[in-house]
Inverse folding.
């Protein structure tokens, strides 16, 4: 190859890059780029899966080309999520026919550290979705963090998680965006008086069983009080659709929540929005909505935000106490007012806005990079043209 | 003062200072109801032998007490002084859509009627609202709850709806009581009211008959009524002291049998 041919080849490659960048930018501006969400195969209802679908739907409604990447070919789209939230294309991530460009966004939940590693060479925007510090840390070997796989952007649902990442992995190491989750409006107080039934949900079935047995042992006079594990009445009992879950939840007057590993605590918020008293074992990460700063800047617990305890074994006694108050109709209105006030902060509309802003920030940054690169290329191509013209003149 | 479409029927067939004191406490439990604008009417049904005492009592309380409700009286001239007859006479004589039975030695909780109105609004098709009753001894110590078992799925059965009484529940547990209950007057009269020929188990017989007549019976999951369960000389006390076990069993069987009949048939023990 002659020198002129080499120069021409470089110029052609630059031109191709330039064209690709222009095309990618055009696609971004027209929202033709893809936003891909990796979806774990978790059959039981969890707030973290719901949030993935919620985010996907928010972006789909904005006009983006949303794709759900599923783990297995037989992975079932969760029926417990409203069908309007799952109505987008799902593709098996094991298939290699997916074309991912630099204008696309790949959202990788915390549970998928392996995918972070496998996709580290992809040119797209990669966002780590952090909803559980447990999932994040469990999958990492000591000394590593998500940046080891080139993930620099994190989207998370609360400031506690942001604080933990910054504390342990360093300030400004990641670009962290936080949004508040939204509790759907179908979580609402019942029109009818509530029933002397207590919902009980938790990560560990042994804990649930222990609480129920100790309660009946301590309070035989309440042997008729029912615990509702919030499953369908079918045989076998199955997880409920979230809307059915909401409709059942509001009819019970109180709900027990046992989940020390929770990173946020969606269920107590669902209770608060439904006018149901949450009786909660405090998780290791104290939910942000039950703490506040007082006038002196000291952190304190929010009064009337349900009943929260560090002691699992005090819960049966708390249940007995709240049952007595329910029967006497002496549960104060203050607790219901405070719960409503807290739940209001976590509404769907705000959540949508914050999700849109977070993604806009990621996309705008990439768009800015494209625009700068295009300008640089245009300058380069212009210079190449001038040089070629001058060379031609010299030759003449 | 205007009625709120409920009459509280208080049957009495004896009178002395002790009863007078208890009656005042019972009336006070209506007078101290909270967060209601309209109070129920009260109707005292009594037997002719205590007419003078009752009139004097009414005169005194009308002078001294400032009750927020109307107190009416009705004399029971049927010649029968049993609880069931007194209640039936009262129910026939009232104009309100609902009535409740208040035994003179019992009391309502002070939020009972406030709660009741919420339940009537939420469940307009219910014919009988039972309160959860707390049974106390003469030292005012709680002994047990009554009417609450309909809230256990185990008792209402797989196909039953918790909160609502059904025959499955009554077959397993017969001790449901209608004192303090709020009952649709016309429906009560339509099925013949309480049967005076049934001793001991007239509550059970009435509830079974009501269920046979497709009544909806719902227990409000609130403690609404305090029942003194061991008053000496009470009907219950009398049965405990005098009725042999075999006879008690007989009355349970009789209640089940008689609940199939509308009329208050003569029973031979």
């Amino acid at each position: 190859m002659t020198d002129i041919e080499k120069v021409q080849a470089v110029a052609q490659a630059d031109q191709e890059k330039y064209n690709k960048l222009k095309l990618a930018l055009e696609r971004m501006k027209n929202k033709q780029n893809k936003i891909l969400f990796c979806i774990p195969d978790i059959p039981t209802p969890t707030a973290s899966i719901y949030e993935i679908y919620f985010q996907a739907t928010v972006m789909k409604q904005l006009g983006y080309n949303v794709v759900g990447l599923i783990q297995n070919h037989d992975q079932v789209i969760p029926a417990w999520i409203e069908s309007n939230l799952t109505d987008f294309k799902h593709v098996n991530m094991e298939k290699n026919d997916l074309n991912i460009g630099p204008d696309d966004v790949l959202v990788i939940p915390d549970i998928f550290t392996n995918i972070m590693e496998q996709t580290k060479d992809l040119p797209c925007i990669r966002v780590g979705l952090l909803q559980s510090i447990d999932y994040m840390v469990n999958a990492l070997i000591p000394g590593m963090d998500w940046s080891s796989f080139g993930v620099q952007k994190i989207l998370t649902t609360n400031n506690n998680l942001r604080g933990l990442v910054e504390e342990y992995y360093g300030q400004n190491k990641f670009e962290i965006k936080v949004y508040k989750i939204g509790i759907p409006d179908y979580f609402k107080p019942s029109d009818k008086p509530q029933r002397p039934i207590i919902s009980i949900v938790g990560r560990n079935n042994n804990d649930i069983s222990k609480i129920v047995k100790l309660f009946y042992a301590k309070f035989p006079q309440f042997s008729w009080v029912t615990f509702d594990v919030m499953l369908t009445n079918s045989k076998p009992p199955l997880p409920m659709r979230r809307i059915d879950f909401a409709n059942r939840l509001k009819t019970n007057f109180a709900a027990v929540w046992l989940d020390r590993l929770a990173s946020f605590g969606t269920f107590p918020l669902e209770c608060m929005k439904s006018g149901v008293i949450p009786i909660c074992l405090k998780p290791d990460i104290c939910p942000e909505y039950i703490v506040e700063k007082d006038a002196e800047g000291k952190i304190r617990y929010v009064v009337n935000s349900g009943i929260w305890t560090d002691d699992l074994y005090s819960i049966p006694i708390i249940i007995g106490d709240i049952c007595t108050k329910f029967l006497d109709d002496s549960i104060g209105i203050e607790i219901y007012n405070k719960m409503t006030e807290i739940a209001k902060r976590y509404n769907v509309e705000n959540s949508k806005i914050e999700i849109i802003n977070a993604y806009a920030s990621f996309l705008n940054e990439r768009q800015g990079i494209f625009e700068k690169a295009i300008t640089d290329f245009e300058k380069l191509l212009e210079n190449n043209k001038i040089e070629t013209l001058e060379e031609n003149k010299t030759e003449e | 003062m205007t009625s709120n479409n409920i009459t509280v029927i208080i049957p009495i067939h004896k009178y002395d200072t002790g009863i007078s004191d208890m009656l005042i406490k019972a009336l006070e439990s209506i007078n101290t109801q909270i967060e209601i604008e309209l109070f129920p009417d009260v109707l005292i049904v009594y037997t002719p032998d205590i007419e003078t005492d009752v009139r004097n009592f009414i005169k005194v309380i009308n002078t001294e007490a400032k009750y927020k409700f109307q107190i009416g009286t009705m004399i029971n001239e049927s010649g029968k002084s049993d609880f069931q007859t007194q209640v039936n006479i009262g129910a026939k004589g009232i104009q309100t859509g609902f009535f409740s039975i208040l035994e003179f030695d019992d009391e309502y909780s002070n939020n009972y009627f406030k709660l009741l109105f919420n339940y009537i609004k939420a469940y307009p098709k219910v014919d009988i609202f039972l309160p959860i009753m707390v049974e106390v001894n003469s030292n005012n110590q709680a002994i047990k709850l009554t009417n609450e078992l309909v809230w256990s799925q185990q008792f209402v059965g797989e196909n039953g709806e918790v909160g609502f009484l059904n025959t499955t529940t009554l077959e397993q547990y017969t001790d449901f009581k209608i004192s303090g209950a709020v009952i649709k007057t016309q429906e009560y009269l339509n099925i013949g009211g309480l049967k005076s020929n049934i001793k001991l188990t007239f509550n059970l017989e009435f509830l079974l008959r009501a269920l046979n007549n497709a009544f909806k019976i719902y227990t409000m999951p609130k403690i609404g009524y305090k029942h003194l369960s061991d008053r000496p000389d009470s009907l219950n006390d009398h049965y405990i002291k005098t009725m042999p076990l075999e006879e008690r069993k007989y009355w349970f069987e009789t209640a089940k049998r008689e609940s199939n009949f509308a009329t208050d048939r003569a029973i031979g023990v």
Observations:
- Chain A has eleven helices and 14 strands.
- The domain at 195-345 of chain A is CATH 3.40.50.2000 (Rossmann fold).
- The first strand of chain A starts at residue 34 and ends at 39.
